[in-house]
Design a protein that fits this description.
The structure is a homodimer. By secondary structure, the first copy, chain A, is an alpha/beta fold. Chain A is about 40% helix and about 15% strand. The first copy, chain A, has 3 domains: about 70 residues, Arc Repressor Mutant, subunit A (Orthogonal Bundle); about 130 residues, Aspartate Aminotransferase, domain 1; about 240 residues, Aspartate Aminotransferase, domain 2 (3-Layer(aba) Sandwich). The interface between A and B is large, with 83 and 83 residues.
Chain lengths: ~475, ~475
């Protein structure tokens, strides 16, 4: 172990620095017990009282905490914790939850080219109203009972059938309904990892993966993403260096980049997973928006190593909360138990409404229409942004996301903050990046860019945004 | 540290036993790193190869697991885990999830005197149909959007107002809507505890508390429950011995005992919480069924130390999933972040339906009617069970639960298993007991005992059940 020399300004300060580095590097994960006072004193050649002082000061800072009679521990999500405090302290406005908070709570008048969903008027509002009335009339509707542990069998069958139309057949017995795609990922993480386990994600990736994995106190390892999937050299190196238990990614049009996994990389990842005992979680919630059949980790080749997640939030409604996971059949009982223990049962009534919506033939027609609208919106958005000096990192053939490089010297977080003051919700690159190397990038949602005032407002925002030379990537200070 | 002598049958076996005991006693919680090979060898005066063999064998048993190059760890909920495996291995049919599984998945024809909810025809089915139609018609209904992070403001206000009618005023800013009462408890546990922390529960308590706390890998400490609340001597002793972070309990009619917390004990618990830095979680989901204003931990005296949880599952619908938590205002942002990270947003449409139901004046009338029906059902059930030789531990003045002692020599788990074969869902005592000392008890739901065939079927079941002399409490074997 390399012990950094204790700086001259004081042994206590040196020891504190030593502890801080170990924690920041996740060598000592949240919840880990710190070395004993005696052990630490011996190791660093200082007196026990110096160690006591260093630990006490770190405890006062909230970085570690004492348990009476049981030593000191790395502070966990605890006592009480803010999620933003797990991992290095972040500027609250560019932490991974920034986009969620803004987009969930910003007023209805705001323009939201940074949000992660389709406009309200693209969604099947009339069909939802009709389905609600149908369920209200149905004498057998599950109005008051708890739902079965795995979810309504009718919906599990419909999901299996639906997925079969765009990929390999799925056995409904492998499907567990949840209250959201996020909850499905959360359940799988609860099942598969424990604090301190390494998890691979794409860099950039869906920001909420970062928040979720922090809540699990995982060690998050970002692998640079390319237009056809992860950088495979770095992926393989990360497997060897960090021995991760999971790789958590998006299928179909990738969030935030719009990248599309190639079949070659899919095969390679599946093969590596077998060799390195890696479990793959493929969040497929944009699958119904893809232009053609894309490569998937969750196919016959992936087999038991892949768990697939989906939901209806992006195509039907984000207010009818319902997601699902598809995993090894012999995992399902344990996953259902874990789900019962932590949320009891699913939303039977919501599931019944979704059954009505999927049974309706209009559903296939609706998703086809969404794909057509997105295919038109994408080049339009590329043109609009190009005129403002924003260049796409990659031009996706569909999906809602466009990942753009900002003009030289513009910092995404600063721009997003300014935008918010003017009723413009933007998604700055660094909320998607575990390594915080995407300060010059921004995610746009091409379906949310129709407002005629948007180009002018964006142009003014960029014009008035102070520039750095050279551009900073992650030089944010707390406001 | 007391090191037991290594038995003569082999040093490896002795070491294995030593490790097993430490794990069983939770001195080494799940996820903890085991002592190094060298350290262990030194401590026990054995060779390193003996330690290697012991660890390897324990790893093969799944009790510990190796991480390449990083030593051995106590196995967590992992790889893949069954929840039933956290903590001592249990007979699957009397583990804490047994009742959930049976009651969620048993057929509609079965009689369910063991289940935890009111009969379908006691629930406001017509009002729910009406509310669904109203929402379907409402031009402003939240049909497709994500809900605000804390939930619909209208529902938070209605909940605050409703709680104010039966207890002290609640500030809506302290309310976070969740997808269920269970999810609210889960969120609070995620926020407040980490693996290995001690949590006090009542013995017996709601079985799902045990399953939930296992999922959090907490050290569960049961305190014997009395008709007016916990045994205070044991409660205080547990505070001193185990230094728990939380006490998780039910308010109002207690589940499963129907006990009613006295004001004296409530004050005493609040005072102890201040002294011992204990957080209290009060799950109040039966509050609308109580006969009069009961004592609460969550009142002015409890202050910031108490988080309160509730839901509408027991009085409106368990299919409209919605619960809430009420906690310190300065915790709410962090709790909402944690909720966003792990399930994204709440069910806006469900929340809107519940707003309609609570706005309706019929709601107060409905709960009054439920209380009247329960007040009639309780003595009727006591009489019915008395005729079969089952004696109530306590006669509650309301609520749905009756906690009964079975006739001498009858084991609850055995009786429940036999019942299941005959379409009778029973709730055996030990699923509610952390110490598994309730083998001779059973929980009955007085609202589910109207079927005229029930007395005869129960009588036959008891008559045909083999008896132990003396009665066994927890002598179950796996089937």
């Amino acid at each position: 172990m390399d012990i950094p020399p204790i700086p001259p300004q004081g042994r206590t300060a040196g020891l504190m620095q030593f502890v801080r580095r170990r924690i920041a590097a996740r060598e000592w994960p949240p919840g880990a017990r710190l070395p004993s006072l005696r052990g630490m004193a011996l190791q660093h050649g200082v007196s026990k009282s110096t160690v006591v002082e260093a630990y006490d000061r770190l405890a006062a800072e909230g970085i570690i905490r004492a348990r009476a009679g049981a030593g000191f521990y790395v502070a966990g999500p605890l006592a009480p914790l803010a999620l933003a405090e797990i991992g290095p302290r972040l500027d609250r406005q560019i932490d991974p939850l920034w986009v969620s908070r803004q987009s969930l709570d910003i007023g209805a008048q705001a323009l939201k080219p940074g949000c992660g969903w389709l406009p309200d008027d693209w969604m099947p509002r009339d069909a939802i109203r009709r389905a609600l009335r149908q369920v209200a009339r149905d004498p057998d509707a599950p109005l008051t009972d708890y739902a079965p542990a795995l979810g309504l069998p009718a919906l599990r069958s419909l999901i299996a059938r639906h997925l079969g139309t765009r990929g390999p057949a799925v056995d409904p017995r492998r499907i567990l309904l949840t209250d959201s795609g996020t909850q499905a990922v959360d359940l799988l993480c609860r099942f598969l990892i424990q604090p301190g386990d390494a998890v691979l994600v794409d860099d950039p990736c869906y920001f909420n993966f970062l928040a979720l994995l922090r809540a699990h106190r995982a060690r998050i390892i970002g692998v640079p993403h390319e237009p056809d999937g992860p950088d495979m050299d770095r992926f393989e190196a990360a497997l060897r260096t960090h021995r991760p238990r999971l790789y958590l990614s998006n299928a179909g049009p990738h969030n935030p980049t719009g990248a599309r996994l190639s079949a070659i990389k899919a095969r390679r990842i599946q093969a590596l997973a077998r060799v390195h005992d890696l479990i793959l979680i493929e969040d497929d919630l944009f699958g119904d928006l893809e232009a053609g059949p894309y490569a998937r980790l969750a196919d016959e080749e992936g087999g038991d190593r892949v768990a697939q997640v989906g939901s209806f939030s992006k195509t039907l409604s984000a207010s009818l909360r319902c997601g699902y996971l598809i995993a090894r059949e012999d995992w399902l009982d344990a996953l259902a138990d874990l789900r019962t223990a932590t949320t009891f049962s699913g939303a039977g009534l919501t599931q019944a409404v979704i059954v009505r919506l999927l049974q309706d033939g209009a559903w296939q027609q609706h998703t086809r229409l969404l794909r057509q609208r997105l295919a038109l919106a994408m080049p339009r958005a590329i043109g609009l942004l190009d005129a403002l000096g924003l260049r796409p990192w990659h031009e996706p053939d569909t999906g809602m996301f466009l990942w753009c490089r900002l003009p030289e010297g513009i910092d995404g977080a600063r721009l997003a903050r300014a935008g918010l003051q003017q009723g413009l919700m933007l998604a700055p690159g660094n909320v998607f990046s575990q390594t915080r190397t995407a300060g010059g990038m921004m995610r746009f949602n091409v379906s949310q860019m129709d407002d005629p005032s948007l180009p002018g407002r964006l142009a003014a925002l960029i014009r008035n945004c102070p520039r750095d030379t050279p551009p900073t990537l992650s030089s944010e200070k707390s406001p």
